[in-house]
Specification:
The structure is a single chain. With about 270 residues, the protein is mainly alpha-helical. About 60% of the residues lie in helices and about 5% in strands. The chain has 13 helices and four strands. The chain has a two-stranded antiparallel sheet. It is elongated, with a radius of gyration of 22 Å. The chain starts with 20 loop residues before the first helix and ends in an 8-residue tail after the last helix.
């Protein structure tokens, strides 16, 4: 079925008629400076910048809703594996209290999350509250190589997340990772998992900071950007490597691809 023959879903924002009170209200809320970032792309697609802006808004809403599910799934699975690693090494499931070789950045993020807990949360059911307080970036960082550990100045060492976490069970976070990597002719490694998680995190931050999506998603630290379609595909890739059933659910319930199908196109 062609793009043009697909009826627009009811949840898509409609572009108000030019000169209508609705259009004036939107243009009052959206500064000319902000809308200007859509102008060149709108000219290329031969559509009003406001229409492109509203489509971008719909895409952001769809992405944030799905990524919220993925983020919770990722952190819960990583939390479980960290608890098992900690239980073996320190006889406690509270991995954030155990003597694990977290680098300085990770330790700082744990302390920050702890500082945001109320006194009651620290006394009761602390584990769940702390896990919920840790950012998406925290979980992504655990898939990195690991950074510097300062013990007592000037002594320092280097965390090894590959051997201290990934090979000790953190890889089991992704129950379908090895099978999926093999299916797409990739090698299943920590870096492969990181690439997917890093892309989803970049998309999540782009949406959270209300940045335009129509020109693609910049990847931090890589001096390049990928298409929105590829970033959305990484969300489905993350669901797939986490759990086949989660992927099936996302395929049936996600609005991301549906919104993408109605992206304003050149000469539409």
């Amino acid at each position: 079925m062609s793009r043009q023959s697909n009826p627009e879903p009811d949840f898509l924002s409609r572009t108000p008629r030019k000169g209508s009170p609705q259009e004036r209200a939107l243009r009052t809320c959206i500064t000319d400076e902000r809308l200007a970032s859509y102008d060149s792309e709108a000219r290329r697609r031969s559509c009003p910048a406001l229409r492109l802006y509203l489509w971008d808004h719909d895409m952001a809403s769809a992405c944030m809703g799905d990524i919220a599910i993925l983020e919770v799934a990722l952190r819960n699975r990583m939390d479980r594996q960290l608890s098992l690693i900690s239980l073996k090494q320190s006889n406690t499931e509270d991995w954030y209290m155990a003597v694990l070789r977290f680098d300085d950045r990770t330790q700082y993020q744990i302390r920050e999350a702890w500082s945001h807990l109320t006194s009651q949360q620290r006394k009761h059911r602390t584990h769940g509250h702390l896990v919920a307080s840790l950012t998406f970036g925290f979980w992504r960082n655990l898939l990195e190589d690991g950074g510097t550990i300062h013990t007592k100045w000037p002594d320092q060492s280097h965390a090894d997340y590959e051997n201290d976490f990934w090979r000790k069970g953190l890889d089991k976070t992704f129950s379908n990772g090895r099978q999926y990597a093999r299916a797409v002719e990739e090698r299943w490694t920590r870096r492969y998992a990181l690439g997917i998680v890093k892309t989803v995190h970049a998309l999540r931050n782009r949406v959270a900071h209300h940045e335009p999506l129509v020109n693609g998603i910049p990847l931090p630290g890589e001096n390049r950007r990928i298409t929105l379609a590829n970033a959305v595909q990484s969300c489905f890739d993350l669901a797939m490597i986490l759990d086949r059933d989660l992927y099936a659910w996302l395929m049936d319930n996600s609005k991301m691809r549906l919104v993408l199908e109605h992206e304003p196109q050149p000469n539409e």
